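Annual report, structural modelling task.

Input specification for the fructose -6-phosphate complex:
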Amino acid sequence: MKLIMAKDYQEMSNKAADVIINQVKEKPNTVLGLATGGTVIGMYEALIQDHQKNNTSYKEVHSVNLDEYVGLEYTNQQSYHYYMNDQLFSHIDIQADNVIIPNGLAENIDAACQEYEKAIAELGGVDLQILGIGQNGHIAFNEPGTSFDSITHKVELTESTRNANMRYFDSIDEVPTHAMTMGISTILKSKQILLLASGKSKAEAIYNFINGEVHESNPASALKNHPNVTIIADEEALSLVE
Ligand code: F6R
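The model returned the following structure:
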């Protein structure tokens, strides 16, 4: 596991964007695994700036997203479909047909999960997966206790995750109760993983990840079983690590 320290959110974002840009330049038909949330917004901004300035092209890139809420229309600003279009896809030259995000509107969510897992495999797997980390160590929507063998599945969101995500909704009642998420084993199949963390609120999760044992009570700890993981974290997120 490689640790790259950044001064602050901006530096973390720039360094993460550089990893993606180099990957896409080296392999133009890269399969990128993408995340939503606050941590990655600065990285997406840096990618857009680079695309505008240096013409880095995403025409041959495929992307797969980690997760999506169940039951939110894609026009809903809190859906991850909306987020990805708004924060990244509409600003770069990625082709709409090359983008896949879990279908939280599917009539049969379990079947949609299986199809998603199959679609990733048909792409040849993820080359570079970007991850944020939850305060409780979750990765994607895999909450503590999730089996390390899990594949794409439907989850009931915990109280703490719904509360953390409430900041984006008008009230807790509007926060969906379920989501579709890549499983931990799906994530571990990625060839390379980049975990990002910024700010004091992530310090404990990063401390537990680095110093704690590999155990299903800490989903992020599964990454320690992967041969190619890089963490980019800023000073605040690393403040509890000696
Ligand atoms: C998002 C995702 C989540 C977030 C995590 C951190 O697609 O899968 O696991 O990465 O909740 O969220 P932020 O970045 O908002 O702190």
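The chain has seven helices and ten strands.
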